[in-house]
Write a structure and sequence with these properties.
The chain has 339 residues and is an all-alpha fold. The longest helix has 25 residues.
């Protein structure tokens, strides 16, 4: 009786999880495209990040209130998550897209999974599989094509460094998100997201001094690929779709899918961001950037789906964390990802 009633629910749950993961990837993919017209209209990248994070934090206040006990159980985790996974990755990513194309910035940020593998290998000194190492190497080769290293550097060097900073902050996201569900005081992932955004909003308020920004720009118009539209449209999209919807659907999807599957689906974020930047912003990438982007995605795919080198519980944890990589960006953040 138990088998007959349980089996029909599994496909539907898997289908739901896949649908939520796809929604999350598409929602996150539009963050840079929505933010860039606001930056070009006169808002600084940090003020745009503050708007995104603070708006999302306010929207998620009910979730934070429901899980308010998490503040007493794991305050250090929540602060660290807000500092790196929210404020750090978003600030670096938005600073990057103010200097280099959105697609290029996001593709560089996808070096997060290989960087995490390097952290596990050389800092934590835990074994990794050959597939993970190969995936990391392929991703680095793809990055070389994206930035056209044979031309000295095809894009603004500072913009590339900001994008690499977002990738490094992404590593902190994975490590802290994994730590949140472990130990004798685990924290609900929704609580980590909600409080991470709140902490990020507070930190960014101190850093950016939003009262000095010209918020009157939001009442005017912005230009997107030669067309004028109300500034509130990309601002609302960035907060409600590319942050709130993206975070919530991404976190929930992992409950229905295994981390490797959720991570692979989330790789679509880079493709969505590049296509949207092409269609809506007129950012055309050359053949080397397209080829390099495919290599970065292929490397991330191989790294995320590789199995641990040692079949021990502790060795499995970092690879599972890598499998959720593409989800942030901004998840950044993932829960960025960027950001």
């Amino acid at each position: 009786m138990h088998r007959s009633t349980a089996s029909p629910t599994l496909p539907s749950g898997r289908t739901l999880g896949l649908g939520l993961a796809l929604v999350s990837a598409f929602a996150f993919g539009g963050s840079g495209t929505a933010a860039k017209p606001l930056i070009e209209a006169g808002l600084s990248p940090l003020h745009v990040v503050w708007l995104r994070v603070t708006g999302a934090a306010v929207a998620l206040l009910p979730i934070a209130y429901r899980h308010r006990d998490a503040v007493l159980r794991r305050p250090g985790l929540l602060i660290g998550f807000g500092l790196l996974a929210v404020a750090g990755v978003q600030a670096c990513y938005f600073a990057a897209i103010s200097r280099i194309p959105v697609g290029v910035a996001l593709l560089i940020e996808y070096l997060g999974p290989p960087l995490l593998i390097g952290y596990v290998k050389f800092v934590q000194r835990k074994p990794i599989s050959r597939g993970a190492a190969v995936g990391a190497g392929v991703a680095v080769a793809g990055l070389a094509c994206v930035v056209e290293v044979w031309n000295g550097l095809g894009f603004d060097a500072l913009g590339v460094l900001f994008a690499l900073g977002a990738a490094c902050c992404q590593v902190g996201y994975f490590l802290l998100a994994d730590a949140g569900r472990r130990g004798d005081r685990p924290v609900d992932p929704l609580a980590v997201s909600a409080f991470g955004l709140l902490v990020g909003a507070v930190l960014l308020t101190v850093l950016t001094r939003p009262w000095q920004a010209d918020w009157g720009l939001l009442g005017g118009s912005v230009v997107m690929n030669g067309h004028s539209l109300p500034a509130l449209i990309p601002a609302a999209w960035m907060v409600l779709i590319a942050t709130v919807l993206a975070y919530l659907t991404g976190v929930v999807s992992v409950g229905y899918l295994s981390p490797p599957i959720a991570g692979v689906v989330a790789n679509l974020e880079a493709v969505v961001a590049t296509v949207l930047a092409w269609v809506l912003l007129g950012e055309h990438l050359g053949l080397p950037q397209v080829a390099g982007g495919l290599l970065v995605l292929a490397g991330a795919f191989v790294a995320q789906t590789s199995r641990p080198a040692v079949a021990e519980t502790e060795a499995e944890v970092p690879v599972e964390a890598v499998a959720t990589a593409a989800g942030v960006s901004g998840r950044s953040s993932r829960t960025s990802r960027g950001d």
